[in-house]
Design goal:
The protein is α/β, with parallel strands linked by helices. It has 8 helices and 15 strands. It binds glutamine (GLN).
Protein backbone atom coordinates (compact mmCIF):
# COMPACT_ATOMS: atom_id res chain seq x y z
CA UNK A 1 0.00 0.00 0.00
CA UNK A 2 1.09 3.55 -0.66
CA UNK A 3 0.25 4.71 2.86
CA UNK A 4 3.23 2.82 4.20
CA UNK A 5 1.26 1.47 7.18
CA UNK A 6 0.32 -2.12 7.79
CA UNK A 7 -2.58 -3.26 5.62
CA UNK A 8 -5.82 -3.22 7.59
CA UNK A 9 -7.37 -6.66 8.00
CA UNK A 10 -10.86 -7.14 6.60
CA UNK A 11 -13.21 -8.23 9.42
CA UNK A 12 -15.36 -11.16 8.32
CA UNK A 13 -18.46 -12.07 10.35
CA UNK A 14 -19.26 -15.79 10.45
CA UNK A 15 -21.84 -18.10 12.06
CA UNK A 16 -19.62 -20.94 13.28
CA UNK A 17 -22.36 -23.44 14.08
CA UNK A 18 -23.44 -23.89 10.48
CA UNK A 19 -21.84 -26.92 8.85
CA UNK A 20 -21.02 -27.60 6.05
CA UNK A 21 -20.58 -23.84 5.46
CA UNK A 22 -18.84 -22.78 8.63
CA UNK A 23 -17.90 -24.67 11.76
CA UNK A 24 -15.03 -25.37 14.12
CA UNK A 25 -12.82 -28.40 13.81
CA UNK A 26 -9.94 -28.87 16.24
CA UNK A 27 -9.87 -25.15 17.03
CA UNK A 28 -9.87 -24.07 13.38
CA UNK A 29 -12.69 -22.56 11.37
CA UNK A 30 -13.51 -24.79 8.41
CA UNK A 31 -16.28 -25.23 5.86
CA UNK A 32 -17.29 -24.06 2.40
CA UNK A 33 -17.77 -20.39 3.37
CA UNK A 34 -14.52 -20.27 5.34
CA UNK A 35 -12.47 -21.77 2.51
CA UNK A 36 -14.19 -19.62 -0.11
CA UNK A 37 -13.52 -16.31 1.62
CA UNK A 38 -9.93 -17.34 2.38
CA UNK A 39 -9.40 -18.25 -1.28
CA UNK A 40 -11.03 -14.99 -2.43
CA UNK A 41 -8.81 -12.98 -0.07
CA UNK A 42 -5.74 -14.78 -1.35
CA UNK A 43 -6.74 -14.31 -4.98
CA UNK A 44 -7.45 -10.60 -4.45
CA UNK A 45 -4.57 -9.98 -2.10
CA UNK A 46 -6.27 -8.82 1.09
CA UNK A 47 -5.96 -10.00 4.69
CA UNK A 48 -8.93 -11.24 6.69
CA UNK A 49 -9.75 -11.93 10.31
CA UNK A 50 -12.81 -13.92 11.39
CA UNK A 51 -15.38 -12.60 13.85
CA UNK A 52 -17.65 -15.44 14.99
CA UNK A 53 -21.13 -14.45 16.20
CA UNK A 54 -24.76 -15.56 16.37
CA UNK A 55 -26.39 -15.18 12.97
CA UNK A 56 -28.87 -12.57 14.26
CA UNK A 57 -25.98 -10.25 15.18
CA UNK A 58 -24.26 -10.28 11.81
CA UNK A 59 -26.29 -7.74 9.80
CA UNK A 60 -26.48 -5.31 12.76
CA UNK A 61 -22.69 -5.60 13.13
CA UNK A 62 -22.23 -4.88 9.42
CA UNK A 63 -24.51 -1.84 9.46
CA UNK A 64 -22.75 -0.58 12.61
CA UNK A 65 -19.40 -0.82 10.80
CA UNK A 66 -18.04 -3.48 13.19
CA UNK A 67 -17.67 -5.93 10.30
CA UNK A 68 -16.52 -5.34 6.73
CA UNK A 69 -17.84 -8.58 5.26
CA UNK A 70 -20.25 -11.33 6.24
CA UNK A 71 -20.23 -14.85 4.85
CA UNK A 72 -22.68 -16.94 6.82
CA UNK A 73 -24.83 -19.05 4.55
CA UNK A 74 -26.71 -15.77 4.20
CA UNK A 75 -29.59 -15.76 1.76
CA UNK A 76 -29.95 -12.83 -0.60
CA UNK A 77 -33.35 -11.24 0.08
CA UNK A 78 -34.95 -7.98 -1.02
CA UNK A 79 -35.35 -6.91 2.61
CA UNK A 80 -31.65 -7.45 3.33
CA UNK A 81 -30.62 -5.63 0.13
CA UNK A 82 -31.92 -2.47 1.84
CA UNK A 83 -29.40 -2.99 4.67
CA UNK A 84 -26.33 -4.52 3.01
CA UNK A 85 -24.80 -4.95 -0.43
CA UNK A 86 -24.48 -8.52 -1.71
CA UNK A 87 -21.97 -10.20 -3.97
CA UNK A 88 -23.07 -12.31 -6.90
CA UNK A 89 -24.91 -15.43 -5.67
CA UNK A 90 -22.49 -18.24 -4.80
CA UNK A 91 -24.64 -21.16 -3.62
CA UNK A 92 -28.23 -22.31 -4.18
CA UNK A 93 -30.17 -23.19 -1.02
CA UNK A 94 -33.85 -22.77 -0.03
CA UNK A 95 -35.81 -23.78 3.06
CA UNK A 96 -37.00 -27.22 4.14
CA UNK A 97 -39.55 -28.34 6.68
CA UNK A 98 -38.13 -30.93 9.08
CA UNK A 99 -39.85 -33.17 11.64
CA UNK A 100 -38.93 -35.92 14.08
CA UNK A 101 -38.24 -39.27 12.37
CA UNK A 102 -41.22 -40.78 14.19
CA UNK A 103 -43.64 -38.10 13.04
CA UNK A 104 -45.88 -39.27 10.20
CA UNK A 105 -48.56 -36.65 10.86
CA UNK A 106 -46.89 -33.60 9.33
CA UNK A 107 -46.35 -33.91 5.58
CA UNK A 108 -46.46 -30.23 4.62
CA UNK A 109 -47.32 -26.68 5.72
CA UNK A 110 -51.06 -27.52 5.69
CA UNK A 111 -50.52 -29.84 8.70
CA UNK A 112 -49.05 -27.15 10.94
CA UNK A 113 -52.17 -25.92 12.72
CA UNK A 114 -51.47 -25.65 16.47
CA UNK A 115 -47.98 -27.16 16.11
CA UNK A 116 -44.76 -25.82 17.64
CA UNK A 117 -42.17 -24.74 15.12
CA UNK A 118 -38.50 -24.15 16.00
CA UNK A 119 -36.44 -21.60 14.05
CA UNK A 120 -33.26 -19.58 14.40
CA UNK A 121 -33.41 -15.86 15.19
CA UNK A 122 -32.86 -13.45 12.32
CA UNK A 123 -33.03 -16.07 9.57
CA UNK A 124 -35.16 -16.55 6.48
CA UNK A 125 -36.47 -19.65 8.30
CA UNK A 126 -37.75 -17.42 11.09
CA UNK A 127 -39.46 -15.16 8.53
CA UNK A 128 -41.08 -18.20 6.92
CA UNK A 129 -42.23 -19.45 10.34
CA UNK A 130 -43.85 -16.07 11.05
CA UNK A 131 -45.81 -16.37 7.79
CA UNK A 132 -46.86 -19.94 8.58
CA UNK A 133 -47.87 -18.90 12.10
CA UNK A 134 -50.14 -16.24 10.64
CA UNK A 135 -51.64 -18.60 8.07
CA UNK A 136 -51.99 -21.79 10.15
CA UNK A 137 -51.93 -20.68 13.79
CA UNK A 138 -48.57 -22.34 14.34
CA UNK A 139 -46.56 -21.44 17.46
CA UNK A 140 -42.97 -20.30 17.06
CA UNK A 141 -39.99 -20.93 19.34
CA UNK A 142 -36.77 -19.01 18.57
CA UNK A 143 -33.19 -20.27 18.97
CA UNK A 144 -29.79 -18.57 18.75
CA UNK A 145 -28.11 -21.39 16.83
CA UNK A 146 -29.04 -24.27 14.55
CA UNK A 147 -27.76 -27.22 16.68
CA UNK A 148 -30.03 -26.21 19.61
CA UNK A 149 -32.97 -25.99 17.24
CA UNK A 150 -32.20 -29.44 15.76
CA UNK A 151 -32.10 -30.96 19.27
CA UNK A 152 -35.48 -29.50 20.14
CA UNK A 153 -37.23 -31.41 17.37
CA UNK A 154 -35.04 -34.50 17.70
CA UNK A 155 -36.01 -34.62 21.42
CA UNK A 156 -39.69 -34.13 20.66
CA UNK A 157 -39.92 -30.74 22.41
CA UNK A 158 -41.04 -29.02 19.22
CA UNK A 159 -42.92 -30.55 16.27
CA UNK A 160 -41.13 -29.08 13.33
CA UNK A 161 -38.23 -26.85 12.32
CA UNK A 162 -37.28 -24.87 9.26
CA UNK A 163 -33.69 -24.89 8.05
CA UNK A 164 -31.79 -24.38 4.81
CA UNK A 165 -31.92 -27.61 2.80
CA UNK A 166 -28.13 -28.10 2.33
CA UNK A 167 -27.53 -27.52 6.05
CA UNK A 168 -30.18 -29.88 7.38
CA UNK A 169 -29.39 -32.56 4.78
CA UNK A 170 -25.73 -32.42 5.85
CA UNK A 171 -26.61 -32.50 9.58
CA UNK A 172 -28.84 -35.56 9.13
CA UNK A 173 -26.17 -37.34 7.09
CA UNK A 174 -23.43 -36.59 9.65
CA UNK A 175 -25.27 -37.14 12.96
CA UNK A 176 -26.89 -40.53 13.14
CA UNK A 177 -28.28 -39.68 16.60
CA UNK A 178 -30.35 -36.77 15.26
CA UNK A 179 -33.88 -38.15 14.92
CA UNK A 180 -34.90 -35.87 12.05
CA UNK A 181 -36.29 -36.17 8.54
CA UNK A 182 -37.05 -33.68 5.79
CA UNK A 183 -40.67 -33.52 4.63
CA UNK A 184 -41.95 -32.51 1.22
CA UNK A 185 -40.45 -30.13 -1.31
CA UNK A 186 -38.44 -27.06 -0.44
CA UNK A 187 -40.65 -24.20 0.80
CA UNK A 188 -38.82 -21.66 -1.36
CA UNK A 189 -35.67 -21.19 -3.36
CA UNK A 190 -32.87 -18.76 -2.64
CA UNK A 191 -29.16 -18.13 -3.08
CA UNK A 192 -26.39 -17.28 -0.66
CA UNK A 193 -24.44 -14.07 -1.11
CA UNK A 194 -21.46 -12.48 0.59
CA UNK A 195 -22.52 -9.20 2.24
CA UNK A 196 -20.65 -5.95 2.79
CA UNK A 197 -21.63 -2.74 4.54
CA UNK A 198 -24.11 -0.95 2.35
CA UNK A 199 -22.91 1.84 0.09
CA UNK A 200 -19.42 2.03 1.60
CA UNK A 201 -17.53 -0.91 0.23
CA UNK A 202 -17.78 -0.85 -3.56
CA UNK A 203 -14.06 -1.62 -3.95
CA UNK A 204 -14.17 -4.58 -1.59
CA UNK A 205 -17.33 -5.91 -3.21
CA UNK A 206 -15.69 -5.69 -6.63
CA UNK A 207 -12.73 -7.70 -5.34
CA UNK A 208 -15.04 -10.31 -3.81
CA UNK A 209 -16.93 -10.73 -7.09
CA UNK A 210 -13.71 -10.90 -9.08
CA UNK A 211 -12.24 -13.43 -6.67
CA UNK A 212 -15.39 -15.53 -6.81
CA UNK A 213 -15.29 -15.52 -10.62
CA UNK A 214 -11.63 -16.51 -10.65
CA UNK A 215 -12.32 -19.41 -8.27
CA UNK A 216 -15.12 -20.61 -10.52
CA UNK A 217 -12.83 -20.39 -13.56
CA UNK A 218 -9.82 -22.10 -12.03
CA UNK A 219 -11.73 -24.99 -10.46
CA UNK A 220 -11.07 -23.96 -6.85
CA UNK A 221 -14.76 -23.27 -6.19
CA UNK A 222 -15.73 -26.82 -7.21
CA UNK A 223 -12.83 -28.25 -5.28
CA UNK A 224 -14.00 -26.55 -2.07
CA UNK A 225 -17.67 -27.50 -2.48
CA UNK A 226 -16.81 -31.10 -3.39
CA UNK A 227 -14.54 -31.43 -0.38
CA UNK A 228 -17.59 -31.00 1.88
CA UNK A 229 -20.49 -32.24 -0.24
CA UNK A 230 -18.91 -34.78 -2.58
CA UNK A 231 -19.24 -34.75 -6.36
N1 LIG B 1 -29.83 -18.80 4.86
C1 LIG B 1 -30.53 -18.44 6.06
C2 LIG B 1 -30.64 -16.95 6.17
O1 LIG B 1 -30.02 -16.26 5.43
C3 LIG B 1 -29.88 -19.01 7.31
C4 LIG B 1 -28.48 -18.53 7.55
C5 LIG B 1 -27.86 -19.05 8.83
O2 LIG B 1 -28.56 -19.61 9.68
N2 LIG B 1 -26.57 -18.90 8.99
O3 LIG B 1 -31.34 -16.44 6.98
Amino acid sequence: SSSGGAEKKVKVGIDTTYPPFEFEDGGDYVGIDIELIKAIAEDQDFEIEFKPMDFKGIIPALTAGQLDVAIAGMSITDARKKEVDFSEPYFEAGLSLVVNKDNSEITGPEDLKGKMIAVKKGTTGADMAAELAEEHGTEVRLFDDSPAMFQEVSNGNADVLIEDYPVIAYAISQNTNLKLKIVGDRLNGDFYGIAVEKGKNADLLKKINEGLNNLRDNGKYDEIVNKYLGE
